Amino acid sequence: MPVPVHPAPYLIELPRYGSESEGYLTVAEADKTIPFPVHRTFWTYNTPELVVRGRHAHYHTQQVLIAVAGRIVVMTETALQGVQTFILDRPTLGLYVPPHAWHTMQYLAGTLQVAIASQPYDEADYIRDYHTFRRIWCA
Question: Which residues form the Sugar 3,4-ketoisomerase QdtA cupin domain (predicted)?
């Protein structure tokens, strides 16, 4: 059976409305700025700078990661694109992470990350061992 091909991870510019004098609003809408129906949203905060989070891939879940405040260095790895590095450093920039993409995140102190996901949480959807990920998707 052929391995499904997913799009590469890519950056998404989210719209910004408002002005410096009154503040700004940024919108993320399912099937518009977010390229999938949204079934879960969660956020990560107070992560120490030396901690690397993520360290997993998903079988089915798509995500968009956004640094609402602060800065995140995201490393992704896919069979076709290899390793890529993305910097999320403004609330109008999201990173689309497709299924089958190993990803890690490292945060600047005080960073607030919002993650928008296409699936509800399901532990069976996670590949948490890097060698298993390489064996399944990068062979």
Answer: 11-135
